[in-house]
Amino acid sequence: MRFGTLSGRLVVIDGDRALDVEKHSGGRFSADVNTTLARFAEFSAWAATADFAGSVPFTERELGAPSPRPRQVFAVALNYRPHAAEAGFQAPEEPLLFTKFPSCITGPITEVTLPPGKPDWEIEVVAVIGAGGHRIERAHAWDSVAGLTVGQDLSERTVQLQGRPAQFSLGKSFPGFGPTGPVAVTADEFGDRDDLGFACFLGDERVQSGRTSEMIFGIDELVARISAVCPLLPGDLIFTGTPAGVGNRREPPRYLQPGEVLVSRVDGIGEIRQRFV
């Protein structure tokens, strides 16, 4: 199943057509993403047999964030060994977590106003939580993931790195700094849910690429580790980490400029596109 939002309402997607969940379930499921993801097993069973006769065409520019109002947004630092190395750190032995404040979450095709400082990019595969739970066993962790989507952990490095300790969450939460989309895709749609290829481009230059199989801590382990402390709620997001190639670790460093367009792609999901002003 592929799901997302149109005009803030939950839809199931097939190709270039979308089915309004609340309308076509006769009110059985809500148009609110978090409310319906709380009943994810029931919802996905309904979606598998949904009649698309009443679906409507759409363009990706019309799509919003697949989970537009997450109550919790978790992000994982240094979850790929090459990125840890380029940042000058040893690979972590425990997941290193911070948050992106939910107000930064946006949809897939956006215009982002660059703040002063040193803004750059971090492509990430993002897990959207379904029913969630507390102390989820790793063996059952994938059952709590509603789908995977494309994300960018945009970062302004001056704010992020000022002070001791550093201001990670603040520097990564400017308006528009959490684009996601274009849709969320359930794990059963992938040939191997633990090995997705992804890349991002500035213009014609590929600036990052990787595979989720290269993560230090896989999605199932992240779900188990996070939920051991924090109950995961329907619609929560986990930004699972970025590979090497971020701008502030290049020689010389490279930062986003007005007029540039950043395109981020994940195999089997699609792409998001940010234009900077």
Features:
277 residues; alpha+beta; Fumarylacetoacetate hydrolase, domain 2; 5-stranded mixed β-sheet; 7 helices; 15% helix; Fumarylacetoacetate hydrolase; metal-binding; hydrolase
Please indicate the percent range of residues in DSSP E strands (runs of 2 or more). 25-35%
The residue fraction in helices comes out at: 10-25%
Class from helix and strand fractions:
alpha+beta
Order of helices and strands: EEEHHHEEHEEEEEEEHHEEEHEEE
The pLDDT mean sits at 96
Gap from first CA to last CA: 35 Å
User: What is the C-alpha radius of gyration, as a whole number of Å?
Assistant: 18 Å
Report the CATH architecture of the largest domain.
Alpha-Beta Complex
Q: Can you say what the CATH homologous superfamily of the largest domain is?
A: Fumarylacetoacetase-like, C-terminal domain
User: Helix tally?
Assistant: 7
Q: What is the number of independent domains?
A: 2
Shape summary: globular
Task: Please provide a written account of the structure.
The protein has 277 residues and is α+β, with helices and mostly antiparallel strands. It has 2 domains: 2-62, no CATH class; 73-276, Fumarylacetoacetate hydrolase, domain 2 (Alpha-Beta Complex), CATH 3.90.850.10. The protein contains 7 helices and 18 strands. The protein has helices at 21-24, 33-37, 40-48, 81-86, 157-161, 168-171, 219-227, and strands at 2-6, 9-14, 17-20, 56-57, 73-77, 96-99, 105-106, 109-112, 119-120, 123-129, 145-152, 155-156, 178-185, 197-202, 205-211, 237-239, 261-266, 270-276. The protein is globular and about 55 Å long. The mean pLDDT is 96. This is Fumarylacetoacetate hydrolase. Keywords: Hydrolase, Metal-binding. Pfam families: FAA_hydrolase (PF01557). Residues 73-276 form the Fumarylacetoacetase-like C-terminal domain.
